[in-house]
Amino acid sequence: MKARIPVMTPWLGEEEAQAAAAAVLSGWVAQGPRVAEFERAFAERVGADHGVAVSSCTTALHLALVTMDLGPGDEVVVPSLSFIATANVVRYVGATPVFADVAADTGNLTAASVDAVRTPRTRAVLAVHQGGVPADVHALRAACADWGVPLIEDAACAIGTTVGGKPVGQGALLAAWSFHPRKLVTTGEGGMITTDDAAWAERLRRLREHGMNVSAAQRHASSAPVLERYLEVGFNYRMTDIQAAVGLVQLGKLDAMIARRRELAARYESLLADVPGITPVRDPEYGRGNFQSYWVLPDPDFPVGRDELLAALAAAGVSARRGIMAAHLEPAYAGHPHAPLPVTERISTGSLILPLFHTMTEEQQDRVVAVLREQAGR
């Protein structure tokens, strides 16, 4: 039996292990100097003035909405086509998520799809760079400016993705990032918020640490007693120095990761060119993705359905996944009112994610495509 092909595996090695061990041996394992270094390096990489490390992208999004002072009675336009956390964080602050449809070619919100569902109660737009495919943020930012509402970017999957040759996150009011193992840069779990606003960054750092006016690191560094104050209700959303140490090593590998993933994505597209009825994800004309996920959308008349295709891949030793979920189709949002979302539902129920990871071999890719070719010929 040939080894099973995973859908994704992080590119981790001895360097990350040594960095984590050094953090442990330093005696400082909580949020400290390595977190601060990681924040600076990450912000520089995405072209932002400030980075605020947190425990996950979900907590990053939550704090972004808290910073915008959103609450009951407010509406936030979000894509249903996203991991459910994108919608959930709106509910965390008591606001209402309003689902907008997405573009068929990118899986992302557009200015037109947002405009179709916004109301006088719309207080923010939360756009996702889905699977590393960039949203057209220039158009979205211009539209949001005209409407007088802020645009927050869920860039969970998008480290290294570009729009107009510039990094996703550059110029964003607030952008949230993930370091989950399914992402290119991983710290096991963890997240980051980037912004150019110094006052927001200061408040975000306070909010992630119980609302304290001084951090634990500042207290420990002081030679005099420090009596902290709790200025507002905050949260325990901190990253550890162990995670940040791993993240710094991973960030140094990012260019190699992107180059390899784009190479594999190009080879997939070439191999799939003669497989009828399969449309692969591609770069939009305005940007370049990092191919965090490589998804394909079979035509409605493809010989087998999406779930049958997943079963055939599994039988051949290939781990694939259903396409990006749609929050409005999940039990957690049963009965939640929404406009028609035909593109969202077509992508979510019809697409699947194929294996793609840094150490993937050509033989493994050939095995994946051979299953698709066989099923297309049925």
UniProtKB/TrEMBL annotation:
GO terms for molecular function: transaminase activity. Keywords: Aminotransferase, Pyridoxal phosphate, Transferase. The keyword DNA-binding does not apply. Its cofactor is pyridoxal 5'-phosphate. The keyword Iron does not apply. Belongs to the DegT/DnrJ/EryC1 family. L-glutamine:2-deoxy-scyllo-inosose/scyllo-inosose aminotransferase subfamily. This is DegT/DnrJ/EryC1/StrS family aminotransferase. It comes from Actinacidiphila acididurans.
